[in-house]
């Protein structure tokens, strides 16, 4: 082996170690992104492989050969698990265990029996397969951030191709026993590709994760944590600046006697009542309708391209379904009702806050009229 090859090898190890530390640091600041920890662990295996392989170059032997194969394939299998965890949020363990079990079961016996050439051939082949599988995971998740994930897919694929090339060169050479580390042009080319790809994958993945965290923070800022519906801020971000036309309606719901429920059954029961109503609201709306919790026990529903009869029927369906729901709590079962009021915009377009106020007035008319009912704004239009 030349000094240049050894330098390249150590450069890969140094790059992998730095990236692993960076990922671990990011995980410490964002514990919910568990794939960062899994990915960091996979790179620890890769770093271990680099140092063991460097020792194998100087002193070839079966134990070091087995160790270098094991470290690399465990690292790439864990990397596959991390990619799956990133895409789905699921556990990385099944893919990591499956990838490790199959690849090690095939590659370790030849190395243990002294057929190191065959062992390295299988190692490169399985490394290529695991990296291609990792690329596929990112390809499947490309909708999240197409440019970044396609870039990561391409770099993993290029790295996989370099390992496949190493396996092919060894196969063409036909030596089952080498007695030393593989030494050919494909090995050196593979190291260069790995260094370039690792740098690119690290940069793109960090950008991808930062974008995910930013979207996560924005989602939290616009979502009511108790019910999962949009919050008041999100509703006004969507509709606050746009004029409300004659075929757009706003329905405001308010749970009846909610304070009494909190006083009698406790706040935990009150929270469950709010969640139950939120589910009824979400399940009875059309895909294009927007539901939000305005605060406390007040909710809103915005319906576009609709008619008064449709809005009244929708609100009535929600009211009836909720009133028929017996809610089980730790302190007993209860039944709660809801009142609603709705209003439309105008042909000329009306401010969202004015339509909301008109729906609020209709809601209070429903409350004064005995609760557990739906009331329309006068002429079913905001004034």
TrEMBL record:
Residues 246-379 form the GGDEF domain. It catalyses: 2 GTP = 3',3'-c-di-GMP + 2 diphosphate. One of its GO terms (molecular function) is diguanylate cyclase activity. SMART domains: GGDEF. One of its GO terms (cellular component) is plasma membrane. Keywords: Membrane, Transmembrane, Transmembrane helix. The chain crosses the membrane at residues 6-28, 35-57, 63-84, 121-139, 146-170, 190-208. Its EC number is 2.7.7.65. Pfam families: GGDEF. Signal peptide: none annotated. PANTHER family: DIGUANYLATE CYCLASE DGCM-RELATED (PTHR45138:SF9), REGULATORY COMPONENTS OF SENSORY TRANSDUCTION SYSTEM (PTHR45138). NCBIfam families: GGDEF. This is diguanylate cyclase. It comes from Mesorhizobium ciceri.
